[in-house]
Design goal:
Length: 352
């Protein structure tokens, strides 16, 4: 046994992860505090001076500080002061982050996306088509098995023939499968692969992609809050300032900068979302659910019929779906409904 083999190897992975987690926690609230203070100083200097003077007046005088430290030392609290201060500091930072980020998430517009609409943009992908064909064929086989187990009554047969004059048409022969179902199958395959293949490369790449989506979404929400915060601060400053033109100019300039930042993080969020969906499809291709990708088992006639049916279905759904993402603004329907419930008066154009 050599000397190097007898020496214990130090593992710093836990320390590195702890430092990384601490940094991930500490930088968002620090950024929020710096941004809130910077906006207040830049847009509303008079308001900042008033607020700073009030905070200074809240500071206890020297005599009360000496008395406090004497009492703390007498009861042994002086040794706990660093821990108490650290606790309140962490609590304050967490409160600031939640106010800015979660408050920004509640401010419209809110980004939403439809995974099934995103699949339509990749309808030429062989994996998506295979999932669709396999699912459609499975529904067809289930329907045949149900008919054999319980044959339809003459009345049901007559009603079906009147409803569809061509019962052997492709649309009625195979199951009706939507792209929403395909999206759910891909999500289910990704969840199962994450549980059974934690250390696999595709699964790790998916986790990294999911982590990358949080930062742009959090920044976009924070900027929405800062946009509203800038407007409120500027209105307060206009009541005190004698140079209102400067306040207006700085407000407009800062709002323009925030809007540009929101647009940039909005695009980053969309790209990160696309990356997550791409990695989910990659994981579903590498670790498919049992019985979801059996295209090789289809005969040539069935494969051709399902291929034609798939292309027609994808083309029809693409005609009325424009894009996979959208910006949702406040729903005025709930406002009208609430007003009618409280007052008992129906608003015009309420749709009733």
């Amino acid at each position: 046994m050599t000397i190097n083999e007898r020496e214990p190897r130090m593992d710093f992975s836990g320390l590195v992860k702890g430092v990384q987690d601490f940094w991930d926690f500490i930088w968002p609230p620090i950024f929020c505090i710096v941004a809130l203070t910077g906006i207040l100083v830049y847009v509303a200097p008079q308001t900042f001076k008033v607020a700073l003077a009030k905070l200074t007046n809240l500071k206890p005088d020297d005599q009360r500080q000496v008395q406090f430290f004497k009492v703390a030392k007498r009861f042994g609290f002086d040794k706990l002061l660093p821990i108490i201060c650290a606790f309140f500091l962490i609590f304050f930072l967490d409160v600031v982050r939640n106010i800015v980020v979660m408050g920004g998430q509640a401010i419209p517009p809110v980004i939403s996306y439809t995974p099934s609409a995103m699949l339509l943009e990749h309808s030429n992908d062989s994996m998506i088509e295979c999932l669709w064909m396999t699912r459609s064929q499975a529904i067809h086989l289930q329907q045949e098995a149900a008919l054999k187990a319980a044959p339809p009554t003459p009345h049901e047969t007559e009603g079906a023939s009147q409803k569809d004059p061509a019962p052997f048409h492709l649309d009625t022969r195979y199951g009706f499968v939507t792209f929403e179902e395909i999206s759910q199958l891909i999500d289910a395959a990704a969840v199962e692969a994450s549980a059974q293949h934690k250390d696999a490369g595709p699964v790790k790449s998916l986790h990294y992609a999911e982590e990358d989506i949080n930062a742009p979404h959090m920044a976009f929400s924070a900027l929405k809050f800062l946009f509203l915060y800038t407007l409120v601060v500027s209105f307060i400053e206009l009541r005190r300032s004698t140079t209102r033109s400067r306040v207006v100019f700085r407000t407009i300039f800062l709002l323009a900068v925030i809007v540009v930042g929101m647009f940039g993080y909005f695009l980053r969020y969309l790209r990160a979302t696309e990356k997550v969906q791409e990695m989910k499809r990659y994981v579903a291709r590498a670790y498919p659910l049992s019985g979801t990708m059996n295209c090789e088992a289809l005969d040539d006639q069935t494969s051709l019929e399902l291929h034609n049916l798939y292309e027609g279905r994808a083309e029809r759904e693409s005609e009325w779906r424009r894009r996979w993402w959208s910006l949702r603004f406040p729903d005025t329907t709930i406002v009208k409904w609430s007003w009618e419930q409280v007052t008992g008066q129906r608003l015009p154009n309420s749709g009733r």
